[in-house]
Amino acid sequence: MMKSIALTRGSTVSYTLLSDLFVDRYMPHANGEYVKVYIYLLKAIQKNAASFSIQSMAGAFNCSEEDVTKALNFWESEGLLILTREGGEIVSVRLPEIPDESPEFQKDGGESSMPRPVWPQPDGTVSNDRSRTLINGNDENVDVLITIAERYTGRPLSRTDVNRVLYLYDELHLSVDLIDYLIEYCVSKNKRSFRYIESVGVRWYNDGIKTVAEAKARASSVDGRFFRILRYFGISGRDPLPNETARMKKWLDTWGFSQELVAEACARALRNTDRQTPGNLFSYTDRILSRWYDARITTLSQVRDADLAHERQRAAAGNGGNASGSGGNTAGNGRDSSSAARRKTAKPNAFNDFEQRDYDFEDLEQKLLEHTKNNGAG
Predict the structure, then answer these.
(1) Is the pTM of this model over 0.85?
(2) Which of 187, 259, 331, 347 has the largest CB neighbor count within 10 A?
(3) Is 271 in contact with 284 (CB distance < 8 Å)?
(4) Which domains does the chain have, with CATH numbers?
């Protein structure tokens, strides 16, 4: 009789359990960065962590706090997180159990009236067998769709491309007209990848978009002006976030600023904030434009006039300090040593919300007096 073999653990490393349902159903269509955030939360909850901060999570993954917030919002929309907010800020996160039943059915077995969420197949296409059946069948729409796709992209479709197009038609039941507009829309944004086209189609399906009119309304809601502002910040390759859209709409439509003035405010924000954190850029720009709005500034020339007025105000404040404090000045240059400190601690206003020039106004004043005296003597 063989002796039993001893089995020992060679490592004390702990593990995080991940549901197969998450891997099979949710992970295939999720952004990889979002998956990281969910697994991080799963680990924290399994280790009985009482709290976490968005800032610490952003640091752990070397991303922005805004990216973490987007991930949390995404998993909330998928039903895998329950977020509690106070004053617009997330204050608690709960991870419910992932339901075993298919999401398109209610627990009582009845079919839901809500559009069912879509989890594309791992390869994001219909199977090759199904594709051959459709192509060899009597459905003329299949040939029409392939022709449309090739016309817009300017190249023959690969088998995978064809399968992705047929996935939209056969699995999601998008109409030929809607798929036609979908491909046109994506190509107009210089996005010719059928993986990208399929992802937009899935998003439209989940949003309940069924007609070309609804799709055009969705597309027009993302104003082209907003993309230009994103480019001012060096942001590309994504749509503006809801909070970014709300701010840009306020700047352009509510406050009535021109694109030119917004660009100037963005430039000042870029000079004074961390350009790697879009949230800071938008907040700083919003503060600048808010003060310009309160000051009724509507043109770049008014901005320049306000800059000059602010410089003169600083000069006058500095001269006033010299008159009252020159007797106690130990530097011997006639300048109030506390004036610079006051400027450093001054509250932001409409015009010092950006990097200021540093002039020696006493020297400039002396040169002006000498110039006046010489002209009078002549």
Answers:
(1) no
(2) 187
(3) no
(4) 20-94 (1.10.10.10), 128-220 (1.10.10), 222-320+342-372 (no CATH)
